[in-house]
Amino acid sequence: MTFIRLGVLILVRPIVCKRYNMIKKCSRCKEEKSTSDFYKWKYGGDGLKSACKECLNKDKSLYYKNSEKCRNRTKKYDKDKRKELKIEVMSHYSNGQPTCKCCGEDEYEFLSIDHTKKNGKEHRKQGIASKALYRWLKKNNYPKEYRVLCMNCNLAYGIDDCCPHQFEDYKI
């Protein structure tokens, strides 16, 4: 980044130029190497990555050798985090143990969040659904217009505005 002021060139940070054989120390292998041994990176203070090309290529090859293992580890981590978040949100709305407010179902896999104001369609249009909804609820300090219902009760409320568990004579 350079500034020109009254015809005078003022350098704010040094500009790396390949025609000069400048030396830089790699942050990984700690060796001093020529600047041509570093990839360009506009966010670096000197316009270069902090690790040399050789170190970065080693990392890349290690990833590709173990890519399936890395993806599986990431997938498992993400799944565990989603489960933790879902249980945390459900526990908050159930005052402790996640249970359906209508029928008492406590298998967390069967539970879902119900919009008591019937504005779920608006949320889905905004892209706030499933795991994004749990993050949104936590980020917005758990708004009061939500509750925990099992999928059966949630669907019944969506269709009939009542749940079969509330009325004995409702059964067909």
Description:
With 172 residues, the chain is an alpha+beta fold. It has a domain at 78-170. The chain has five helices and six strands; from the N terminus they run ββββααβααβα. Strand 3 and strand 4 (32-34) form a beta hairpin. Helix 2 (67-93) crosses helix 4. The longest helix has 27 residues, at 67-93.
Keywords:
172 residues; alpha+beta
Secondary structure layout plus pairing:
Blueprint: E1 2-5, E2 8-11, E3 23-25, E4 32-34, H1 53-65, H2 67-93, E5 111-115, H3 120-125, H4 131-139, E6 146-150, H5 151-160
Antiparallel strand pairs: 1-2, 3-4, 5-6
Helix pairs in contact: 2-4
Extended strand count:
6
> If strands are numbered along the chain, what order do they take across the biggest sheet?
1-2
As residue ranges, the low-confidence spans are: 14-19
* N-to-C span: 75 Å
What's the number of helices? 5
Q: Could you tell me the strand content as a percent range?
A: 5-15%
Structural class: alpha+beta
Main β sheet profile: 2 strands, antiparallel
User: pLDDT average, as an integer?
Assistant: 80
Succession of helices and strands: EEEEHHEHHEH
Rg estimate, integer Å: 28 Å
Describe the global form.
elongated
Helical content, roughly? 25-40%
